[in-house]
Amino acid sequence: MREALKKIGLYWQPLGGNNPDQISGHCYRYTDIRSAGRNGQKSSVSLLVDLGKFDNYQALGVKNATAAVPDIREILADKKNAPQALLLTHSHPDHLNGIIHYLKAGYRLPPVYGGKYTLMILYDLLCEFNIPRRLWPKFHVIRAGDKFTFGSLSVDVVSSSHTCFDSFGFLISSQDVCVYHTGDMKIDQTTCFRKSTDLKMLKQAASKIDYVVADFYGISSDGLAVQERSTYLRLVHLIQSVQKNKIFIPVYPTHPEMYLIAFMAALKCKKNVVFYGNVDFFTYLKMVVDYGLSFENMAKNRIKVSYSHDKEALLPLKDDYVVIGTFNELPDVFEANRKNSFGIITASTFFNPLKGQFNLHNIKFVTVDDYPELQGYGHAFWGDVEKLNQTLEQKACFIPTHCPVFMIDDVRELAQTCDVRLLPQTPQNNQIFRLEKERASLAFSAPAKWLAVVYNSPDSAFFTEVLQKPTSGKGFLKRTISRKRCQKKFKSFMIKRKKRK
Ligand SMILES: [Zn+2]
Predict the structure, then answer these.
(1) pLDDT of 339-395, one tens digit each?
(2) What is the pLDDT of residues 143-160, one digit of tens each?
(3) Can you tell me the distance from the alpha carbon of 55 to that of 66, in angstroms, rounded to the nearest whole number?
(4) Is 125 exposed, middle or buried (0-12, 13-18, 19+ CB in 10 A)?
């Protein structure tokens, strides 16, 4: 791998975001090689972006494994090109939780740079896993608009619309090449309580951005990704029109923006709020409060807010409330029935048991099948990619990530129709590309590995190498995007555009 980094230039390497099919375990490396001094000496700067866990670890077939992570052991051991920083785009486990397992396995990591909320989540994980403080990497809190320099590389922090607070992208610039690493994002300019994707900053930087390492997770949907405002308006409309006393709105635990949107909708409709859910939900809810948002301040005595669903706690709410949280059952205390209750389900499969409960009690409910805008969505649709491409004046070359490799092969024709320029060669994990202003070339290729994580004791993690290969139909994440369906969709998007032209 080291041999590949001989020539002067900027190199990009995906380690987890470009899998054969299922997508998670994100980690990417940027290395800049420059000449330094007269005797042909070279300087090297490496940065890592994200270190997530691979969700479908069960499919790897390693006995007693509890997680899997991308293999960056060689990168960490390479003294010459050791990463100087680990930049974190956001707090989701597939971008963050690999850190924990590496520390547990005895590795030391470079200083981490992340938003306040991201580092709050990381802090919580470090405590939960009992990692001794002396092993913690250094924390650097970053904000949108910050600029850092690491040797010959500079990094600008760009705000991104995603489903958690402090989601960022990065402009990573060497002497002659600039890459916009988007992180998970959509274009949505209506995010609540946090900065949206900074289109103004991107427009200003358009002339210098050569590549976009882009989130392609949602590109099999057309148009722009669901806006938070659309979710809010739909919730308000539903709460007002059904005229029931008790409204149940289950939300996905790692999407705190949905807690807020549902809360704002309840407030608009002057309905009290009961937060109710599992441990995960209350952990994230506490994080939102610690981050600085106060539901009481927002309520300003217009509605009552309860964090408990005891009989006594519910009494002052006078049977008029919205229940917000991660729940799959309806405890008796809510006395929910056909006459007084209504359900609004905001995720496609997560709340299937709850649907069963609604049916059992004859309670009417709507789902994302009825109103797709009910589901908060954090990733770019194809329309977002087009919009980003326009914002960047169609000058940048897109390097797709966060999607199965086959999707990149299949979207090429559509991309061409829409004047979205893609990296000619479909990138796969563990390959290294040398990014020049005018062209990119493959500098290294070797099979990528996952490291299955087994805990022999709570204090020591042990890694087992497994080659990365398709895992569809195996493990607990059996679902994957079917190639056929994807191809069909891209065809239909193309026909639509050709008709328009
Ligand atoms: Zn995410």
Answers:
(1) 999 999 998 888 999 999 999 999 999 999 999 999 988 999 999 999 999 999 999
(2) 999 999 999 999 999 999
(3) 10
(4) middle
Do residues 45 and 152 lie in contact, with contact meaning Cβ atoms separated by under 8 Å? yes
Segment 461-472 mean pLDDT: 88
In a domain, 368, yes or no: yes
Number of structural domains in the chain: 2
Last residue within a domain, chosen from 342, 374, 406: 374
Q: Tell me the one-letter amino acid at 395.
A: K
The set of residues, in sequence order, having a beta carbon less than 8 Å from that of 403 and lying 6+ positions away, is 23, 216, 217, 219
Q: What's the CA-to-centroid distance between 244 and ligand 1, angstroms?
A: 34
- Contact by Cβ (8 Å): 186, 224: yes
CA of 119 to the centre of ligand 1 (A): 15
Is residue 253 in some structural domain? yes
* Enclosing domain of residue 243: 228-374
Give the Å distance between the CA of 92 and the centre of ligand 1: 5
> Could you please report the per-residue DSSP string of 224-255?
SPPPHHHHHHHHHHHHHHH--SEEEEE--TT-
Ligand 1 center from residue 163 Cα (angstroms): 7
Question: What's the rounded Cα separation, in Å, for the pair 345 and 142?
Answer: 35
Convert the pLDDT of each residue in 90-147 to its tens digit.
999 999 999 999 999 999 999 999 999 999 999 999 999 999 999 999 999 999 999 9
| Distance from residue 318's CA to the centre of ligand 1 (Å) | 38
Angle at 387 between CA 384 and CA 388, to 5 degrees: 85
pLDDT at 479 over 60: no
